[in-house]
């Protein structure tokens, strides 16, 4: 936690939800979790559109000198634009989104060569700063009104911060006799002899070998978990297990994927350890400052670092492990200060770059002499974690020794560094812990003492087991003592196969059948792991395991910077009978891993014996054969399945955390109001906390909390428990407001284990959209339809020929900002999906609001469940169109965020899309495939996603503003299917003025050429004097006139602003029409501006 900011908690008093609010709260277990006005999984309020307020060039023939000169001019121009924008901001001028885009240079479009795969354009601002923090006249007026209503600030409750207080023999015993060898022992001796031959043929690595790993990440999609964090622009592997929630990113792969990845870990499977948001650094603008002992500084650009030290570049495999690898085993003894790392926070990759020694010498820093004072070389990253800059230091003498291979790495597995791994340059110290290998390197300097920054002193330390808190007097002394610091990695070994949860049927176990037990081992300081042993009898006897290293593993004659994979063949029947499989390793000095784990406050450097236990699983009813299941000590993050159980101390701490909850209750509706940085509530263990004051000093940064702001889901509880200790729970308790209502608690419980989501398309699928991952699409054209309406054309990614939407479904459009992704839902106006031959299970997010007139339930027409959707678009073009109304900036307000960005975005730039979303698909001729989760029937649960197929002859649409687009897709489908589709449609389209009517020409054509099958009524609240249609606001009378009357075969869909949907339409349809609402009320599009 930042030491320059008091750890003070301030809680703003709140009376809790009223008795009437609690009584009237919907039963969330019997209706959609994201009903109208409530937040859906993307953070938008369903059923609501916009709020009520207005809101490649070819250089192949250019010579190198000219190219470099032009590039230098581009960099200078980019710096000039940045300075110009900064001056504008510093001088107090109001800045809108278009201003920011015009002053931000898109280097990656013209110079993609020095960037990692999937690089995204990020606008260097936030929506909140542009729209809310600047003194726009509209903001000043709104704040004045708010102050007048509130009559000053409410008092806050302030809670001051208080303080909390011999290795066993491992060699096989013999009695001097020479018993006859078993077949297994003979095989073992042969493998030992073979390994001796193998080791004698291992080759030296000259630092010039190419990386043999070619299966690095090819996906460029972005996980939806990152969409509301500052890392929203980063493609990441979906297989990684997140250890600290959504943000910051700390993750490791499943053990099986680590084994499958091979001896050189693919980039996407390498563990990630971040203390905060990944800094977005540009190759062209990033600089590395190198200072000598007297403060004289040399500044290097990335091109200079890359080109000026070509002769010094080496490319070598290095194993790197997190100091917290296997920490969860310690957390189950007593909670440490770290996350629940499993046994896969390790990887081995090729790192390429110039030797640090040569760079320092070139910058005027000579190697130290034996008589000189002891000097240290310090390193600082460009990230901004909560405790200040991430810095560390090592002895200069060590860095200057060329045999230590300290590298300024710019490539990982022969590819530009991924941002999560330090792009554009990081420090690699082979044989050292990952915490010393500073990422996003921005500064190197020489001092006569060790680094004194927070992360050098208070992190990467092993405390004695009796130190239980960081703020004790003993801790303060020991954290500053050099003996507790972690530099070289310690020796470790882990079993990878059998995999966690692996099962084998006992009836398949045959006499003499062998099973290959596999795993990894590594050591620090370049020391060889000389021997790996496996025991299947609890450590009484040990089997010799064969080792396998990556190619060219040896440096400087005897140094092993890599890890190794080991294996040993054991009879499967012996494994089944065994109480467990244990591994340990030893080095050239005959040091052996300790048998037991030693708890320490930071949970670091755990390297005890690793044991996989087996258990027999039997079916009590005898229907399935018995199996043997293998269980590892723990599993990473919040996964369960390990055989180690929480200690009594851990259980007692959990029980204490349950006590002391105020009596006040809060509904889901009330909780969801507090979702901003200035008003942030979170729900943990069904208790409500005001975390607003914690944001400024939270060790994981504010984004980690804001990702869970105002969300009623179990995920917050699980992630908080996985990474916080007793002290954190104490601080959390100081923030308590009360508890959730019983209905909200039921909702959290029900949604804790959702049904499996629809599987994503395989990589070779022609369908572009993915439900849970963002894919980039390129903006290739704009077509101005009116002064404030534009059609944007986007190109699908290469190899994708189908968008993947059904009629009435929509996609999410996202744009990257500094703090989160800006997301809006849109329905494409081209291509219009044709009638599909079949229908599919609808996704779980809504597109429109159905209201069914159903006086007699027996009149509902159901059909057989459909088969999976095979083809939504037979031969669509590789592009699609979005027609969007622009909300431009005015002198009083900055305009709509996404629409302003799209109107100013350079062509060929990318945005991201995700989907499809929508519970309703129109399949033609009045037939709809509707998710059964829309039903409020007590026999249907909200997590059920089996579709119902219903038929209607009359469709009513009540739409407003940008809410016309989902209705347009439905009308277009009907129109283009005439005369076969005889479904009748009536539309009320509400807008302010004539120019606000979207797609009017197309709508007029539908009405004119459909022979009254499609009828459209436009209603304008502020028409011109020439307007001859309906005027004013939508009223129950207009609804009665413009839509079909109640009937068993009619349905109504709603999409518009909250004033229309919640204030007028719902009361009218429920009251005056007296409809029997068989469907749960759900919404459609969100804010469109």
UniProtKB/TrEMBL annotation:
Residues 828-845 have a biased composition (Pro residues). Residues 1-11, 20-30, 39-56, 64-73, 154-175 have a biased composition (Basic and acidic residues). Nitrate reductase is a key enzyme involved in the first step of nitrate assimilation in plants, fungi and bacteria. Transmembrane segments: none annotated. GO terms for molecular function: heme binding; molybdenum ion binding; molybdopterin cofactor binding; nitrate reductase (NADPH) activity; sulfite oxidase activity. Its cofactor is heme; FAD; Mo-molybdopterin. The lineage of its organism: Eukaryota, Fungi, Dikarya, Ascomycota, Pezizomycotina. Residues 772-923 form the FAD-binding FR-type domain. It comes from Cercophora samala. Pfam families: Cyt-b5 (PF00173), FAD_binding_6 (PF00970), Mo-co_dimer (PF03404), NAD_binding_1 (PF00175), Oxidored_molyb (PF00174). One of its GO terms (biological process) is sulfur compound metabolic process. Residues 854-865 have a biased composition (Basic residues). Homodimer. Belongs to the nitrate reductase family. Residues 1-73, 140-183, 825-880 are annotated as: Disordered. Gene3D superfamilies: 2.60.40.650, Cytochrome b5-like heme/steroid binding domain, Nucleotide-binding domain of ferredoxin-NADP reductase (FNR) module, Oxidoreductase, molybdopterin-binding domain, Translation factors. InterPro entries: Cbr1-like_FAD-bd_dom (IPR008333), Cyt_B5-like_heme/steroid-bd (IPR001199), Cyt_B5-like_heme/steroid_sf (IPR036400), FAD-bd_FR_type (IPR017927), FNR_nucleotide-bd (IPR039261), Ig_E-set (IPR014756), MoCF_OxRdtse_dimer (IPR005066), Mopterin_OxRdtase_euk (IPR008335). Keywords: FAD, Flavoprotein, Metal-binding, Molybdenum, Nitrate assimilation, Oxidoreductase. Its EC number is 1.7.1.3. The keyword Glycoprotein does not apply. The keyword Metal-binding applies. Residues 663-741 form the Cytochrome b5 heme-binding domain. It catalyses: nitrite + NADP(+) + H2O = nitrate + NADPH + H(+). This is Nitrate reductase [NADPH].
């Amino acid at each position: 936690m930042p030491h320059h900011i008091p750890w003070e908690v301030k809680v703003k008093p709140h009376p809790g939800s009223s008795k009437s609010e609690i009584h009237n709260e919907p039963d969330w277990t019997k209706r959609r979790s994201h009903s109208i006005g409530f937040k859906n999984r993307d953070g938008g309020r369903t059923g609501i559109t916009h709020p009520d307020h207005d809101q490649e060039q070819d250089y192949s023939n250019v010579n190198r000198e000219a190219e470099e000169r032009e590039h230098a001019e581009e960099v200078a121009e980019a710096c000039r634009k940045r300075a110009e924008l900064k001056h504008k901001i510093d001088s107090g001028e109001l800045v809108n989104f278009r201003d920011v885009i015009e002053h931000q240079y898109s280097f990656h479009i013209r110079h993609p060569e020095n960037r990692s795969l999937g690089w995204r354009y990020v606008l260097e601002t936030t929506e909140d700063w542009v729209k809310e923090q600047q003194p726009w006249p509209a903001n000043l007026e709104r704040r004045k009104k708010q102050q007048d209503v509130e009559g000053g600030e409410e008092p806050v409750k302030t809670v001051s911060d208080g303080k909390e207080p011999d290795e066993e023999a491992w060699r096989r015993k013999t009695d001097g006799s020479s018993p006859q060898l078993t077949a297994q022992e003979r095989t073992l001796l042969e493998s030992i002899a073979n390994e001796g031959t193998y080791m004698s043929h291992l080759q030296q690595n000259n630092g010039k070998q190419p990386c043999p790993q070619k299966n690095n990440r090819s996906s460029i999609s972005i996980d939806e978990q990152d969409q509301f964090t500052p890392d929203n622009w980063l493609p990441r592997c979906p297989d990684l297990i997140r250890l600290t929630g959504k943000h910051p990113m700390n993750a490791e792969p499943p053990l099986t994927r680590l084994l499958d990845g091979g001896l050189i870990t693919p980039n996407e499977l390498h563990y990630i350890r971040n203390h905060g948001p990944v800094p977005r650094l540009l190759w062209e603008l990033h600089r590395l400052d190198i200072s000598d002992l007297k403060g004289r500084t040399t500044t290097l650009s990335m091109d200079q670092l890359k080109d000026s030290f070509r002769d010094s570049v080496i490319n070598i495999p290095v194993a790197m492990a997190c100091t917290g690898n296997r920490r969860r085993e310690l957390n189950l003894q007593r909670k440490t200060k770290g996350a629940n790392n499993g046994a896969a926070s390790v990887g081995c990759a090729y790192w390429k770059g110039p030797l640090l020694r040569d760079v320092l010498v070139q910058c005027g820093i000579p190697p130290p002499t034996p008589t000189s004072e002891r000097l240290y070389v310090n390193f600082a990253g460009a990230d901004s974690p909560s405790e200040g800059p991430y810095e560390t230091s090592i002895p200069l003498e060590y860095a200057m020794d060329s045999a230590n291979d300290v590298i300024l790495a710019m490539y990982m597995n022969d590819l530009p560094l991924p941002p999560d791994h330090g792009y554009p340059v990081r420090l690699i110290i082979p044989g050292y812990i990952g915490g010393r290998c500073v990422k996003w390197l921005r500064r190197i300097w020489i001092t006569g003492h060790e680094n004194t920054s927070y992360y050098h002193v208070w992190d990467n330390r092993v405390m004695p087991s009796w130190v239980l808190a960081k703020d004790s007097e003993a801790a303060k002394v020991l954290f500053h003592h050099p003996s507790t610091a972690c530099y070289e990695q310690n020796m470790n070994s882990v079993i990878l196969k059998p995999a966690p949860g692996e099962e084998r049927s006992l009836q398949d176990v045959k006499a003499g059948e062998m099973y290959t037990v596999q795993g990894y081992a590594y050591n620090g300081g370049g020391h060889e792991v000389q021997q790996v042993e496996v025991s299947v009898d609890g450590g009484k006897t040990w089997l010799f395991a064969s080792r396998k290293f990556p190619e060219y593993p040896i440096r400087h004659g005897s140094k092993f910077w890599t890890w190794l994979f080991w294996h040993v063949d054991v009879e499967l029947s012996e494994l089944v009978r065994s109480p467990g499989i244990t591994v340990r390793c030893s080095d050239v000095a005959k040091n052996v891993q300790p048998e037991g784990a030693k708890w320490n406050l930071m949970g670091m450097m755990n390297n005890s014996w690793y044991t996989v236990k087996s258990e027999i699983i039997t079916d009590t009813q005898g229907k399935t054969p018995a199996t043997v299941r293998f269980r590892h000590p723990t599993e990473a993050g919040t996964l369960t399945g390990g055989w180690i159980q929480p200690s009594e101390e851990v259980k007692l701490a959990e029980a204490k955390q349950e006590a002391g909850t105020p009596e006040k209750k809060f509904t889901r509706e009330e909780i969801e109001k507090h979702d901003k940085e200035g008003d942030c509530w979170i729900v943990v263990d069904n208790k409500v906390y005001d975390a607003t004051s914690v944001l400024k000093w939270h060790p994981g940064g504010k984004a980690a909390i804001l990702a869970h702001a105002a969300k009623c889901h179990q995920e917050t509880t699980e992630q908080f428990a996985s990474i916080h200790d007793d002290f954190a729970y104490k601080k959390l308790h100081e923030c308590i407001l009360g508890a959730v209502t019983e209905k909200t608690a039921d909702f959290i419980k029900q949604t804790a284990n959702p049904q499996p989501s629809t599987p994503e398309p395989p990589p070779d699928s022609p369908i572009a959209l993915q439900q849970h991952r963002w894919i980039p699409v390129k903006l290739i054209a704009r077509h101005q339809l009116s002064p404030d309406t534009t059609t944007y054309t986007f190109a699908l990614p290469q190899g994708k020929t189908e968008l993947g939407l059904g009629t009435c479904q929509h996609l999410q459009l996202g744009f990257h900002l500094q703090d989160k992704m800006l997301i809006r839902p849109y329905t494409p106006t081209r291509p219009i999906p044709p009638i599909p031959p079949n229908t599919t299970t609808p996704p779980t997010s809504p597109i429109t609001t159905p209201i069914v007139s159903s006086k007699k339930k027996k009149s509902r027409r159901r059909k057989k469940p459909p088969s999976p959707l095979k083809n939504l678009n037979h031969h669509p073009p590789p592009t699609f169109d979005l027609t969007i109304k622009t909300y431009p900036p005015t002198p009083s307000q900055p305009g709509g965020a996404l629409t302003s960005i799209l109107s100013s975005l350079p062509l060929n730039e990318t945005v991201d899309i995700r989907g499809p979303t929508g519970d309703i698909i129109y399949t033609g001729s009045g037939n709809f495939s509707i998710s059964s989760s829309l039903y409020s029937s007590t026999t249907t649960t909200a997590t059920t996603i089996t579709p119902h197929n219903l038929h209607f002859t009359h469709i009513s649409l009540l739409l407003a503003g940008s809410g016309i687009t989902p209705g347009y897709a439905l009308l277009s489908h009907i129109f283009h299917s005439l005369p076969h589709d005889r479904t009748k449609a009536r539309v009320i389209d509400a807008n302010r003025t004539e120019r606000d009517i979207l797609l009017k020409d197309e709508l007029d054509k539908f009405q004119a050429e459909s022979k009254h099958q499609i009828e459209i009524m436009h209603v304008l609240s502020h028409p011109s004097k020439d307007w001859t249609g309906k005027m004013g606001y939508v009223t129950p009378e207009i609804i009665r006139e413009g839509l079909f009357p109640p009937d068993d075969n009619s349905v109504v869909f709603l999409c518009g602003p909250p004033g229309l949907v919640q204030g007028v339409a719902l009361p009218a349809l429920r009251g005056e029409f007296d409809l029997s609402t068989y469907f749960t009320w759900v919404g459609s599009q969100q804010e469109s501006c």
